[in-house]
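Morning!

This is the sequence you dropped in the shared folder:
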Amino acid sequence: MRLHLAPWPESHRLLLAEEMRAADAFTIEGLGLPGIALMESAGRAVAEIAREVCPRGGRVGVFCGGGNNGGDGLVAARLLAGWGYDVEILLCAPRAQIKAGSDAAINLQVVERARLTLVEIDGSDAFAQLNAPYDLIIDALLGTGLRGPARGRVAEAIAYINHHPAPVLAVDVPSGLCGDTGVALGDAVRAQHTVTFAASKLGHWLADGPALSGALIIADIGIPPEVIALKGGDRWLLRAADLQPAFAPRPREAHKGDMGHLYVLGGRLGRTGAVRICLDAASAAGVGLLTAGVGVDAFAGLAPQLYEAMAEAAFDPSAPVEPQAAGLAARLNGFDALVIGPGLDARPYMGALLTALMPKLNRPRVIDADGLNHLKGQPRLLRGAVITPHPGEAARLLGCDAAEVQRDRPGAALRLARLTEAVVVLKGAMTLIADPSGALALCPWGNPGMATGGMGDALSGIIGALLARGLEADIAAMAGVAWHALAGDMAAAALTQNGLTARGLIAALRRVEDEIA
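The structure's back. Tokens below.
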């Protein structure tokens, strides 16, 4: 089996609508490439993908709005007609809305002079009268600048498209989808394929974006990558190259101490499974040595179950907090990296112990689960760590609710990174990695089968192992998230999503390395 690694550019950035407009404007005004040339390239890209989707010819309905998105659709319609397709253009905007002399207006004149079939939609009865057994629909109604629900003819066109059995190819973004947030603003087109230009938009990957966009194709239309880098923000998709630091060759003379010693602090009686998963994942991620520190009540049950790891009783609810914290800090600062949180005791004394312990630590560390819950309201104690909250934990740290986090996951991740001065891994569909500088990376891999117990403990173990091996916090977080997600995809392909477990994912980690390294 081969991994599916999406063929995106190695420096692929994620743009907001305003950034894409700025890149377009700079290319036109600063570099002198006419806008109509960009529209021609965009329309040709759409037409070429349409030909791949519908290779045997057939009838194509091209639904066009009045802006540049509609202009791209008009170019595609002209080219497809020239290639022998039976093309019908549905103009869903009043002509008065098409700016005279604009690139879209010029292309409208061209298709009319070429005598292509063009139907002007002037009311809902026009859709009722369409006799349209299309083999493919091209959605060129609305672009990335949408700020509210579609209305009038365009809203009716969206409803018509969604009720039609033909596959849909969307231009830039599915109409009705916000290109910045990925939220469907009212009804939105459900596309099987989306062609976007120069770079994908953040909204393709968030909220409703992945489900509505279908297969995403990024087309080069002549905007130089340097312009995208200049006008775009510091946001990008993780790529296969981000995994390479995890797979760096070991020196021939390396011994186990050279690969780092990781300490996992967590686990009370009845909750040691999280520690074991974390340890197993760290072992599979190449750490040299492992030690687990658990509650005194859990030590006797856990220790005989460990093979590659050592274990010790690290905390005792009956012991005074300050002396215990001082002794534990002295112990932990002798390790290369720490993971704090898997299966950790949720009782209040542990919060007091962590509050006393954290300022005394000087080692790279991952903080997860109840480690984060105990430290809510104390962001300074998370400084310099890698923290791995799910939306509920992130909400507690930010003082809001999980729904607010989910409405704007990038904003929440960045706010939390600034608040804590930590590298934030916001888990969930399309996991995000944010750092205090404002950089944001999004993981395009992973699947719903990973929504099961122990997956977060496995991720903490992988990132902890990479920290112990000497990677910087942001590099370890990105490589760890990518490795974890790709292993989840590979394990799901072998086991089915319903059969996916944390142990199945851990078993797939080495298979990912075989494919990537």
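Headline: The two ends are 15 Å apart (CA to CA).

More detail when I'm at my desk.
O.
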